[in-house]
Every structure is written in structure tokens, then in C-alpha cells.
Amino acid sequence: MKRTTYSGLVDETFIGQTVTLKGWVQKRRDLGNLIFIDLRDREGIVQLVFSQEFDSEALKVAEELRNEFVIEIEGQVTARDAKAINPRMKTGKVEVEVHNTIILNKAKTPPFEIQDDINVADDTRLKYRYLDLRRPEMQKSLMIRSRITQSVHSYLDDQKFVDIETPYLTKSTPEGARDYLVPSRVYPGHFYALPQSPQLFKQLLMNAGFDRYYQIARCFRDEDLRGDRQPEFTQIDLETSFMSAEEIQDLTEGLLKRVMKDTLDIDLELPLQRMTWNESMARYGSEKPDIRFDMELKDMAEAVKDIDFKVFTNTLENGGLVNAIAIPGGADKYSRKAIDAKTAYIERFGAKGLAWVKVTEEGFSGPIAKFLNDHVDVIKEAAGANVGDLILFVADKASVVRASLGYLRNDIAKEMDMIDESRFAFLWVVDWPLFEYSEDFDKYIAAHHPFTMPNAEDVHLLDENPHEAHAQSYDIILNGYELGGGSIRIHKRDIQEKMFKALGFTKESAEEQFGFFLDALDYGFPPHGGLAIGLDRFAMLLAKKDNIREVIAFPKNSKASEPLTNAPSSVATKQLDELSLKINEQDMK
Amino acid sequence: MKRTTYSGLVDETFIGQTVTLKGWVQKRRDLGNLIFIDLRDREGIVQLVFSQEFDSEALKVAEELRNEFVIEIEGQVTARDAKAINPRMKTGKVEVEVHNTIILNKAKTPPFEIQDDINVADDTRLKYRYLDLRRPEMQKSLMIRSRITQSVHSYLDDQKFVDIETPYLTKSTPEGARDYLVPSRVYPGHFYALPQSPQLFKQLLMNAGFDRYYQIARCFRDEDLRGDRQPEFTQIDLETSFMSAEEIQDLTEGLLKRVMKDTLDIDLELPLQRMTWNESMARYGSEKPDIRFDMELKDMAEAVKDIDFKVFTNTLENGGLVNAIAIPGGADKYSRKAIDAKTAYIERFGAKGLAWVKVTEEGFSGPIAKFLNDHVDVIKEAAGANVGDLILFVADKASVVRASLGYLRNDIAKEMDMIDESRFAFLWVVDWPLFEYSEDFDKYIAAHHPFTMPNAEDVHLLDENPHEAHAQSYDIILNGYELGGGSIRIHKRDIQEKMFKALGFTKESAEEQFGFFLDALDYGFPPHGGLAIGLDRFAMLLAKKDNIREVIAFPKNSKASEPLTNAPSSVATKQLDELSLKINEQDMK
User: Fold this and answer.
1) pLDDT in tens, B276-293
2) Residue limits of the Aminoacyl-transfer RNA synthetases class-II family profile domain (chains A, B) (predicted)?
3) What CATH fold (topology level) applies to the domain B7-105?
């Protein structure tokens, strides 16, 4: 029989109708001559009633049913007794009197219950992912993700973007993260690489004149795994020709507005706030500020420059910064011990200490209060502090001050419950530095990537002082997460060559790795720019999860393996022989 | 300045308006004080006019312009003189008088012209793919492909399908084609595999209760390359729970109708024709018949069983077939020599000969006419032949007869121009055998894949005589190409185990390779089925191309390499060391 509707949609408008439903047994209550079954499908749950009165055969079948059996039923929708009504369920006013039941498949007892609040090891959830995904919150999360992609397709189609697939088997360009390699059988000793992003291909599509490209593209990075990283991830990838950075941001805002509406029925107000990277760093100590709360970093230089506290004055004299944040109501909340723990924590950012005072009716209290008490009003005003607040100071070079206070700002906002979790706060951070210093590589690397166009007035810096240049680049931030980023790209060969040089390439190494792309710049490459949004993270934030694994159907675990299929696995010698490969057995110990 | 419209869209409705256009110089005609430029963008070409009269600065810039320069212009749209009108162009009634021009980028002379009819080596086209893709026919082909995917997203969203991504780094299951492997760095000596299709994952998503899944999914097969194969290809992949084969076919027909309308504005009439595999083989000698023309295979057994021609009668006595096709007007068209060439060709299908007669007013002519001339009317009628036709006979076992005549039918239809190239002839071929004999492997393999459900009445054959079973499977054929295929899948563990056994798996080998999937069948796996459509092939057919490379932005060449980036390439020793791999140097010779 053909299903007439989903279980989860059977509400009072169905009363009196005969329905055919198919789904899973969520729960069974056996009262002897009356059996209640909660029948579950992707849309929700409806209550079935089996009774001698309705059908004795069906009642007999119902006696056999156990959790997670798959059944098909036919029955009549009736109103529940007033006292049996469950107002929290869409189907809570009705039940279905079953006349006919077929068991479509049986089920062993699952290793965990199919319900939202389970306490199960991550790897168990992943090993039985097909059961984990039956849980309503996982269903909902993946449906939100699907709504996002549908919304993206629809909006970008309206905007005349062309959906173009770029290769997944491509060339290894070991800049940035590590590539996943794919050995070639046809060319022994040669490898394809899985793309870290479609960057060069999408730029080439602009050179090919497609004008507006997009793709929901899988990307691959063989990085050491952290909290929310996956070996493969997905980005909403777009590129346009002949548009300015601001025009691309406007277009992206339209996309975000559509997605928020389609996905969560939220009306996003446009335009979004745009802030330079310099301002973001100064005000929030972060290039991805969470603007759902204030507690901004305050420059205390003017307020403290004349006081007799060497930690501050020496720092200022050496060109450093003294910044503070004022924690509303923090004076009572934070003990000396709690503050000491914060101080220890921010050592990882290079901070040598955390100065603090509590603001009382009488002035400041705390270890350094005596140095500041002659300047209470000035300092309170500069820090934006009121009586009852805790003021935290860091004095150091700018990068240390911002990393430390930027971290504390987020950390304390969570502890103090200052964040309105219902909000979705978007923000553009624009005008990034072109380069950033990498501790890992001990050199300057591209802040975004080597194809980012410097600001027009900074192009000359590429010759003289490249690391001071800022770029026509922009990140879109959501609730303190980097949701995506983009830039205007370089479309002139001479600028691209200077960029490679500034990144430490020789003429030869640039040619070897990117020669095909440099050549492409010779043939009428149009001005162009674009953006990529991390789909996994976007879905995670809209689904209000704290790990992208919760919005990926079959993710890898934190060790890059897949407990369901046991990938990666060993393979047959024949497979390796065909690829002209041998395993270095020493590493297998 | 912001572009106001695309060049290719400037028609007579723009007359009098000032437009800003950005694009490429397609052609330049310099008449001294008057310069004409054809400006090209993705929507087409418009004629620009530069003159002292309009702007002398712009005229000066125009003197510098060469083909493929990228420019921005501002100008006024005017009507062309009546005699200058080009009725074949959308923009042929207008031209743009240019007041202002900027050169956005220069271009070297391209290695081939940016126009449709070029005669250039395939690898040159691929090396400069960004130029090749500027050609209008490539633009159009990729836009058709994009229209298809947009249409698929929109239709399946309407039908409540959930777009879910499945992993690209997964487990190697070396059944069927060869896997591409991806070495793991974290687990030395272990490998992921790139998926040949999302088959098992999409079935698991049905087990997870998503009810309707789809994905436009990249698939990877390391096969020996032939005409229209690529190492990576794309399929429109869908799966549903609780639906019958016919319901899935109906739903797919809705999808095809939408795509044909959105892409080519063609109204596809539904329902499509459905034909069993047995009938398709008997009538067309093919499981993917081109039904744009008739010339069907005719069973000649009744007509020839009593004649005195041993080739026919012995074949029939030994249980073989005698089939014929009648080629309308073929008597004059085909010489004895031409027929001999066909005879030689079909030896590859195992045919030992090709008997033939020409139908004249007086009866049959040709080498075997004397054996048949007493039965002219009966044979003519059985073969469906008329005077002037050529009748070709093959007498052999069924597989040889069908392969030979099935091939000849297509071959001759092309030669005789019998195919209406404007038609799109869809057809379902249903009820396939569950297994097929593979010459390559010298054993029975799954005709579709090991997860295909036998017909209900054939399930018992799995124990007794599995290779006679037919399956709940269906292929969708378009113009003689297999566009896609699908089936109802096995959702019961006992049937799946029998299937593996029939395919030659031991209990242990099935467990090792597919144990996780067998386990999943224990937990309330719903009845389900689905389908996959080859997107590359679909786009190729709708764009009227004869190779899928023409509808892939950056395809591999016929040797699985990519002349643009030179993938695959050698990699650094450090990369291999990290993967615990060594190259077998012997193979590098």
C-alpha cells in the first residue's frame, strides 16, 4: 500500500480519515487487550492504538512488535480524549486506530536508545551511525544542512551563477596544509592530490568568461585534527568577475539573508556591519569577534600613562599597549583564585601577567589598586567600568595584549552568561593584512592565500615592504566563528609574481608549481574576486551544535578514522603492486 | 563603474540608453578614424563603435586593443543602419557608440582562435582550457549542465528529498572496478578509497530514516579508459524508502520532465515507455536500445525452419536463434564488399557469418537466395522487408545473434541517416537478470550490484539456481545510451547473505568486506530503492555532444592526465615519507 502521509504530520486535520503510515516502533505500551505504539518517521511520532475492537489480527501482530521494528499500518485517525491530549506534540491531539499491520522488518535491540539525550561514546555513535542518525536531533540537524544547500542553489541560480564542478583529482601544491595524495596507476610514481579548495580552478573559470561561478565543493586537508576539523569538509564556493569587494559582500549578504529565512525563518537585517581588521583587533582582540556582547577592549594608554606603575608605563614607553576589559558585575563573581587561573591560562599567548582591580564605591581594590587609586575616575571612564565591575589589564606588545584579552573576553562572556544564544550576529571583517607571520613556519605566509589582491594604495609595498600591505579581503563572521572569507584576486601577472616572491618563492619554484596559472594571467584574465563559506560550520551554527560532526552524516572521528566501515584499512598487495607502491614496513611497528 | 548589462543582451530595447559593458575583444576592424570592436561576454557579442565623433580618447585606446584584451566601456546604444543589421544576432540591430574605454587587462595572442569551429589537438585545448572554455559552444554546454543540476535541486527539493553528503574518503571494497586509494598518514600502511558510488551510504541513510535522500555525487573509478570514461564522474544519486520500483520510476519521470523543460524547453510526454529486459534484447538486440528508429530484430525461426539451408536449420535444432533485420532501401546502398566488411566486424561478437539477401521484384538475390527463394513471401513478412530492402541474418546462440544484430542495427541506422537527431527518446528497461556472466572474470557477477533485490517470485532461486533470477531493477535509456539505473535493494539480511554467496563470497569474506552493512540489516532496515543518473552523460546528450569531456570544465585526457596542471605529478620525498610509502623504482623504467 502507498503511504498517505508521514506519521509526524498526522494532526487534527486528519480526524476521520483512513491513513497508511510506514515507520519505526519508537515505544510500545502493552495493556493486554489494548496496545499503544509510538510510530516514528522523519517528520515525527504519532500514537497508534491496537485493540480487539478495531482489529484482532492487528492486535496480534502488535504483540510481536519491539522497538525499531519497521511496520506498515492502516488505520483511522481519531481525536484523543481531552485528558490524553499532549500539547507538546504536533500529533498530540490525535491517535490512529489500527485496522491492519504488516511487519516490514524486524530489529535487534539497538546498542543505544533512539532518543535525543543519550550518553554514549562518540565512536559507538559513529559505528552505529545509521541508528544515531535516527535520533530526532540528528534528523533535524541534517535537514537544516539540506535546507541551507537548497537555499544556496536557489539564490545563486536567481543571481545567474553557473554551477560548475572542478576536479577532485588534481595537482599537488604543497603550500599551506598537507595534501591528500592519490597514486596514479597509469603513471608509476606519480600522484594526484585531492584539492584543498577549488581556488585556482575557480579563478581559471573567471578567465574562461563564466562571470559568475559557484559550487558546493568538497575540500580535503590532511592536517592534524583539532576540535572541529575534518579531513574532508565542504564549502559554498563562489567567484565573480568585474565586481568590487563591496559588491561581492552585498551579494553574499543577499545569500545569507535568503538562507536565514529559508532555514530558520529569521529575517536578517541588511546591510551587515563592516569593520576593518585593524578596528576588529583593537576593539575585540580578535579577527573573528563575537559581537553578541560588548565588553570591548579599551586602550588605557591615555588614562595610565602618567601613573606610577612601571608595568604599564614601561610597556607604553617601549611601544606596547595597555588594554583593559571591564566585566560587568565581575567583582563579586571572580575570586583571586579564579583570576589566578585566568592569568596562568593566558601565558600560552605570551602574557607575562594579568593586572586587575575591582571597582567599589570607594575606588579600586586589589593588588595594584594602590597604584591606580589616584586616577579612579579617568581609569573607570577609559575602561567603561562601573561599581561592581572587575577590570582586567594586559600590558604587552599588541599581539599578546589582543590574543590574551580577546580570549578572556569570550571566555568570561560564557562564564557570565552574557551571550544571547538566540541571536545570529553576522559581521564583515575587511581590509586584512596581506601577510601574517607564522610561528609554525617561522616566516611570513599569505593571510588568506597567495592570490589575494593588495589594496590599490598598497601595491607599491610589494616591492618595498610587502608585509605592511593590506589586502582587498574580507571575512564573514558569525557569532565569533569565521564563517567564510574571500577577496579580490590578483589578475595581473606582474603583481602575482611579486606576491610569490614576497612569499619566498624563487622564480623557478613559482614557475614549477604555478607556471600554468601565471601563463593564464597572460591571456586576458579579467578582474575578479570571490568568497567561500564553510558549509559544515554554517550548518553547525544554525543547528546550534558545537561540533561539525553533528551536521555531517558520516564524519571521521577525532583520529581521522571512520568506525562504521573501519576506513582507512589495509589493502591487497595486488592493489599496491598496481600502483607501484611499497609500504615502508619500519613505520608499521 | 558597475556593469549595467551583459554585452550579449544589448538588443533594440536598449536603444538610447547609456550602458557600461565589460568583456573581451573578439574582433577589431580598424577603418582609421572609425574602429569596430566585437565585445564578447558569456551572453554573447555586441558591436562597439569608436570614433573621433564620439570620443577621441576612447578611439585612441581602441587603437591599442587586440583580440582577447579585457575592456570596460561606457557608451550609448544606437540602432544600426538598415543595411548593417545582422538578423542572426540577438544584438544585430544595435551598436554601442563608445564614449569611454578602459583596458582592464591585456592578452597575448592565444594559441587558437576563440570561436566554435576550431581544429586543435585535444591536449592543446585542455592545456589552455581557460581559453577553450571561452568558446561559445563550451560556454553553452557548461550552462546546460548547470541548468540540469539547478533543475534537479529544485525538483527534488519540491519532492521533499534531503540533500545529504556522503564521504569521499571511505573504505576500499575492491568489487567491480578498481578503487582509487588515498594513503593515510595517521595509520601507516592503511588507505582510504575514493567511492565508486555512494551506494552503501545512501542505503544506510534509508536505514537512518531519512526516507528520501539525494546527492549530486562525484564518483571515482580507476578503470582502463575508453571513449567516454573519466577517472572521476558525477551522478545524480537518489534513494527512497517504502516505494515500489514503479513509484520510483514515476518520480524519476517527473524529474526528467522538469529537466527537459528547464534545460531545453522540451515538453516530455509521460509516462515513458517501459519494456522488460527480455523484450528489449529480443526486439533490439540491446539492453539500451535506441528507439528513435525501428529496424527491429525479427525472429525468423518459424519462417525458415523448413527450408533446406543447414546454417539456419542446424542452429535452430541446437537451440540457437535465427534473427534478421531488414534495412529499408538497403539493397542499393550496400555492396557485397560493404557487407563483407560488416561480416568481418561482427566476428568480435562471436558471429561466424552474416547471411544476407536483397529483396527484388522477382524475389531474393545474393549468395543464399537460392535456398530461400521458395519461401519469399513468408520470409519477407517475417523480416518485415519490402522490395529494395537488404535483409541481414545471423544464426547462432542468442547472445551472439543479439550482440551482432544489435550492433548492426545501430551502425546501419547511422549510415543510412535513419535517426531523427532532434528527438530525445527515453525508455525504461526493467526486470533485468540479477546476474550476468562476465568474460573478464570468468564468473557470474551482479548485473547491477550485489544489493539488488530479486523479483519476489525469484527469491527462491537464490538457493536453487540464482543465475536465472530476475531483479527489481530498471535502467533509464536515452537515445541508445544508458542514462541511469536503479533498483529496489535488499533490506533483509538472509537475502543479502544468499546474494553474496551466489556471487562467490564465503561467509568470512562477505563478513570482512561488508560485515558493517550486514549488521545494519539487523536493526530495522526499511524496504528501499533508488536510482542514479549519469550527469556527465545526461549533459552530453542534452548539449548534443559526443564525448563527456565536452561537458566537463576540466576533464582528464584519454590517458587520465590533465594537461593544464600536469596532474598527476611527482611529489616530494617528504610527502611520501610522511605516508610511509616507497615507490617501486622498477616500475619507473
Assistant:
1) 999 999 999 999 999 999
2) 142-555
3) OB fold (Dihydrolipoamide Acetyltransferase, E2P) (2.40.50)
